[in-house]
C-alpha cells in the first residue's frame, strides 16, 4: 500500500472510530431508556439492568457501522478537498483508485465485522437478554415482599405489601384485580404469607375482605378468615423464554426444528431473517461507494449545491430505508427477498458507475435547492433570535 493510501486510510479510520463510538452511544442510550422499567417494575438490581443494557449493543452494531462509515468517508474526503489535497493528488497524476482502494479496504473490514457480529455474537446476546428479562420477571417472591410499593404482576393485576413481619409473614396485603372484563376486585388482608410447594406458590391471606364492583354499580363485600391467591400461573408465564427468529442462531434458521411452534406458524419469517443477515453486512461497502461517488472527486465540493456529507447521508438513509422496507415485506411476501439483495446490489452498481465514469453523485436539483433554502431560512431565523436575546440582555443591563 502506498504512503498516500495509508494516509487516507489512517484519517478515515480515525473519523470512523469516533463516529462509531458516538453513534453507538446515542442509539444505545435510546434503547436502554426503553428498558428502564426492568428496574422500576421488577425490582431488579442495577447490575441486572446494566447487564441487559450491555447485551443490546450487538443488535445495534450492524445498523450503526455503515452510517459511521459513510460519515467517516465523506468527512475525510471533504476535509482533504478543502485542504486541496485531492487537487494535488489529481495534479500529480494519481488515479482515482488511489483514493478508492484504502476506503474500500476499510469498508471491507467493517463489513466482515458487521457480518461476524450479526451472525455470531448478536443471536447469543439476544438469547441471554431474553433469559435475563424472563428470570427477572419470574422472581415474584423478591418482587412482592418489597414494602410500601405497588407492583404490577400481570395486566390488570397489582399488589402491595404494607410491611414484612417476623417468621416470613406479610402485613397489610392489598391486591387490585381488574383482569375480568366489567368486574373490579379489591382484596385486603391484615396478614399473610407466601406458601411454596414444589413449583406452586400461593399467597395465603388472613383476616381480610374482598370488594367486588361491577360496571352496573353493584358492590358486594365479602369477609374471609383465610383466602388463597394462586401465583403459580404468573410464575410459569413469566419464566417462559420465547425466542423469536431474530434471537435464533443462523445455523438454526437454516435448519429449524419441525417442533418449533413459531416456525410452524410463520415459516417465511425465518427465511426473511436469513436473507436480512446475509445482506445486512453489505451496506458498509454500499455506503462507502456512495460516499466515494459523492465526495471522491476534487471538483465535487466546489460545484456541489450542498455539503457532500449531507448528500452522502441523505442518499445512504434512502437506500437503507429501502432495505428495511424490503426486509419487512419479506416476512409475509417471500418475493420481496429478491429486493432485500437487490437494493444493495443496485445501489452499489449505480455508485460504481459514477466512480468509474468520473462523475459526481448529487441529489436532484429540486431537493438540493429546497435543502439550501431551508438551511438559509433556518440560519436567518437563528441569527434573528440571537440578536433579539442580545438586545434583551443589553436592555436588562441598562435598566439595572
Automatic annotation (TrEMBL):
Keywords: Cell membrane, Membrane, Transmembrane, Transmembrane helix. InterPro entries: LptF, LptG/LptF_permease. It comes from the Bacteria. Its main location: membrane. GO terms for cellular component: ATP-binding cassette (ABC) transporter complex. It is found in: Cell membrane. The keyword Membrane applies. It is a multi-pass membrane protein. The chain crosses the membrane at residues 53-77, 310-330, 336-356. One of its GO terms (biological process) is lipopolysaccharide transport. It holds the Pfam family LptF_LptG. This is Uncharacterized protein.
Amino acid at each position: 500500500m502506498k504512503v498516500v493510501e495509508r494516509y487516507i486510510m489512517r484519517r478515515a479510520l480515525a473519523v470512523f472510530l469516533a463516529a462509531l463510538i458516538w453513534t453507538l452511544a446515542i442509539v444505545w442510550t435510546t434503547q436502554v431508556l426503553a428498558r428502564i422499567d426492568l428496574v422500576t417494575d421488577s425490582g431488579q438490581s442495577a447490575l441486572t439492568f446494566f447487564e441487559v443494557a450491555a447485551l443490546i449493543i450487538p443488535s445495534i452494531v450492524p445498523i450503526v457501522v455503515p452510517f459511521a462509515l459513510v460519515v467517516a468517508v465523506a468527512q475525510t474526503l471533504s476535509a482533504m478537498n478543502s485542504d486541496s489535497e485531492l487537487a494535488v493528488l489529481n495534479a500529480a497524476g494519481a488515479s482515482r483508485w488511489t483514493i478508492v482502494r484504502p476506503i474500500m479496504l476499510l469498508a471491507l473490514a467493517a463489513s466482515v465485522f458487521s457480518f461476524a457480529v450479526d451472525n455470531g455474537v448478536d443471536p447469543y446476546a439476544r438469547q441471554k437478554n431474553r433469559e435475563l428479562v424472563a428470570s427477572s420477571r419470574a422472581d415474584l417472591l423478591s418482587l412482592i415482599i418489597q414494602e410500601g410499593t405497588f407492583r404490577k404482576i400481570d395486566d390488570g393485576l397489582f399488589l402491595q405489601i404494607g410491611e414484612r413481619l417476623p417468621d416470613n409473614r406479610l402485613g397489610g396485603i392489598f391486591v387490585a384485580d381488574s383482569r375480568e372484563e366489567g368486574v373490579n376486585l379489591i382484596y385486603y388482608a391484615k396478614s399473610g404469607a407466601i406458601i411454596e410447594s414444589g413449583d406452586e406458590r400461593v399467597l395465603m391471606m388472613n383476616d381480610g375482605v374482598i370488594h367486588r364492583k361491577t360496571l352496573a354499580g353493584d358492590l358486594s363485600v365479602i369477609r374471609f378468615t383465610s383466602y388463597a391467591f394462586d401465583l403459580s400461573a404468573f410464575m410459569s408465564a413469566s419464566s417462559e423464554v420465547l425466542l423469536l427468529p431474530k434471537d435464533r442462531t443462523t445455523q438454526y434458521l437454516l435448519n429449524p426444528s419441525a417442533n418449533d411452534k413459531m416456525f410452524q406458524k410463520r415459516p417465511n419469517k425465518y427465511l426473511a431473517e436469513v436473507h436480512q443477515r446475509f445482506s445486512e453486512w453489505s451496506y458498509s461497502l454500499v455506503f462507502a461507494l456512495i460516499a466515494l461517488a459523492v465526495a471522491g472527486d476534487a471538483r465535487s465540493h466546489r460545484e456541489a449545491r450542498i455539503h457532500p456529507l449531507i448528500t452522502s447521508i441523505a442518499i445512504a438513509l434512502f437506500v437503507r430505508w429501502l432495505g428495511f422496507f424490503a426486509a419487512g415485506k419479506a416476512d409475509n411476501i417471500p418475493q420481496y427477498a429478491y429486493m432485500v439483495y437487490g437494493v444493495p446490489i443496485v445501489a452499489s452498481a449505480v455508485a460504481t458507475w459514477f466512480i468509474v465514469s468520473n462523475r459526481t453523485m448529487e441529489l436532484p436539483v429540486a431537493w438540493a435547492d429546497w435543502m439550501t433554502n431551508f438551511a438559509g431560512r433556518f440560519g436567518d431565523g437563528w441569527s434573528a433570535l440571537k440578536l433579539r436575546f442580545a438586545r434583551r440582555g443589553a436592555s436588562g443591563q441598562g435598566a439595572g
